[in-house]
Amino acid sequence: MFTNLISRIHNCSREEDILTASVESVKQALNCDRAVVYSLQPQNLGKVVAEAVEPGFPRTIETTIDDPCFQSRHINSYRQGRISAIDNIQTARITPCHIETLEKIAVKANLVVPILLPNHELYGLLILHQCSEPRAWKPEEIALTAQMALQIGWALDNAVRWSECQKIYSIIERQKYYSDLLVTATQKIHQGNTRVEVLQIATTQARLILRCDRSVVYAFAQPNLGKIIAESTLPALSSIEGMTIEDPCFEPDYIGKYQHGGVQSIDNIHEAGISDRFVNILVKIAVKANITVPIIGSQNELFGLLVVHQCFNYRNWQEPEIEFLRQIGIQTGLALLKGQCQEEVMAMKSSLKRAGIVKETIATADTQIQHVKESITNSVQNLDEAKHLMRLLSHEVISLTEKFSSEDINLIRIIAKKLQSNTDTATVETLSLQSDVAELETAIDSAIRVYKSHSYN
Questions:
Q1: Domain that holds residue 237
Q2: I need a surface site. Which of 105, 159, 326, 425 has the fewest CB within 10 A?
Q3: Which contiguous run of DSSP H or E holds residue 48?
Q4: C-alpha distances in angstroms, 229 versus 196, 215, 242, 306?
Q5: How far apart, in whole angstroms, are the C-alpha atoms of residue 243 and residue 228?
Q6: Is residue 16 assigned to a domain?
Q7: Are 257 and 281 within one domain?
Q8: What is the domain count for the chain?
Q9: pLDDT in tens, 5-56
């Protein structure tokens, strides 16, 4: 019988199942009216956490008992392994207050043994009740009950250890889960070519992976003033992108916390101990729980905050979730630096391209000027020859004056004057063109100096 009882208890992995199996097994084995486990609680209280009882007798499960007589007189002795067997409460040497407590639940005889954990800590008491009549407890019954209590203590300790192992395993599994997702999210974030793309990808990945209601980037303009510059939100929620939020809660020391990589998680905004003004700000945008992590920009300065919101219910954030978002914030900051560098490189390439166009234009203009200068040089030579011919013509006209009639001489003079006038006009235009070319050369030289200065910078 004892072996079967032990096997049943140790097959249970949860505390609740162990206690339930224990009281049922002991009650059946010893054929008593009630078996309970009485767990010690803070402030000298005790609670019935497991019960097996015959029909017709009061149920005591979940009953909290405040028995100062018990706490003051017997608790230390039970820690030392005391066993109490009362055959008849009316004839036993117990206090009136103890008798009154037992009579309320129809107890006429009882057997109490301590449940000690392996570290000798007193978990509570295993108690057997005889309610129909007094009962003389046999030594073998007392020994069996004591052995059962000892095994319950060991089983409870194993359950605690198993639960702790399960929690650790669960944490490890969740960490691995978020670690794998972080790799994918990081790759997507770093695919953004501009800061706008980086922030939008980051908010989207944070919201989808954490399965929250909203994710935003809050960028600082002043220590206590910022703006929502990126957002990913459920369709059922109103957008808050572009909203300017003034929050006096962001004091310098609070900013310093984020500057050095600090994070904040709030499971319930009404129980987080934050200021009423901050609570009101969160209520206005339908936030019930959130996580806030920093985004560090260039020169190790705080660019802003990456914040996820739970809006439709409160949420108990888990450590792997908080760490995941912190890592997303770090990667967002790095991607912003990369995006800023890419933007600067693109601007430089555009500037160099414009400078190249200017260079080509200047080279073309210089070539054209050389052609004009050659034409001017040829024109000057032609004008010099024309002037020389005019002088010869004038000399010949004077020589011919005596040989021709007055009518022929007048015609020659008119032709000579016309040639002289055309020659003078061509000379003036050539001089003006030379001046214009000189000014153009000066402008080109100035443009070249500006271009070279820009290229060196």
A1: 185-342
A2: 425
A3: strand 45-53
A4: 9, 11, 6, 11
A5: 5
A6: yes
A7: yes
A8: 3
A9: 777 887 888 888 999 999 998 998 899 999 999 888 766 677 889 999 999 9
